[in-house]
Structure formats: C-alpha cells, structure tokens
Specification:
110 residues; mainly beta; 6 strands; 41% strand; globular
Length: 110
C-alpha cells in the first residue's frame, strides 16, 4: 500500500484515497493555494467511503519542523461524482518575508 507501482509519484494508499487507479499514472488530486487572508490552503480529493484512511495535514515555517499546531480542518465539499474534497488551512498567515509549508499525511486506519 506504500508502493508506487505506476511510477506517478503517488503511493498506492493515496491513489486509493483519491479513487484513482494505482496501476495507471495520472495527475495529482492535491492542491495548495493561498487564501485571501494570507493563509495556506491544502485540498485533497477523497473517494466517498474511503473511511479506512486517515487524512491530516501539518505545517512548518522551516522544512523539517512539522507540527499540527496552526492547521485546522476546514471541512469537506461533495464533488457530486462520488468524491469529496477534504480541506485544511493554516490559522495564520506567513510572517513578513517568511514562509509556510504544508504537507498531507495519509495512513490506514488501524
């Protein structure tokens, strides 16, 4: 479940979450943007019913110093195609001249 048999850079578990075929290379279903208040937003498409996968997000001001503090779950949006978009955002904007990073964590439910 952690392999990338099709070589598209996404682990099979993430492809399951997205509802894509882990044997066929395809585009990413993850997007990152900056909101109107300067917060960083991360969105991932999840197939409805893939509740056996945990999706969370972390942020960092420096790469390598990842924390969940300062990230909030921002809800889900039904895409009306059997998938939903799971949304996260930082709770503050990057400091002047600074940076924010976000990463997606995906794990099977144990």
């Amino acid at each position: 479940i952690f392999g990338d048999d099709d070589g598209d850079g996404k682990q099979a578990l993430v492809e399951y979450l997205n509802g894509s075929d882990p044997r066929a290379a395809d585009g990413s279903q993850v997007s990152v943007s900056i909101g109107g208040d300067g917060e960083l937003r991360l969105e991932v498409v999840q197939q409805i019913g893939a509740d056996d996968v945990i999706v969370t997000a972390e942020r960092a001001d420096e790469l390598g110093a990842w924390v969940m503090l300062g990230v909030e779950y921002w809800g889900r949006r039904n895409n009306t195609d059997g998938t939903e978009t799971v949304r996260f955002r930082t709770t503050s904007e990057a400091p002047p001249g600074g940076r924010h990073f976000m990463r997606l964590l995906v794990a099977p439910v144990e």
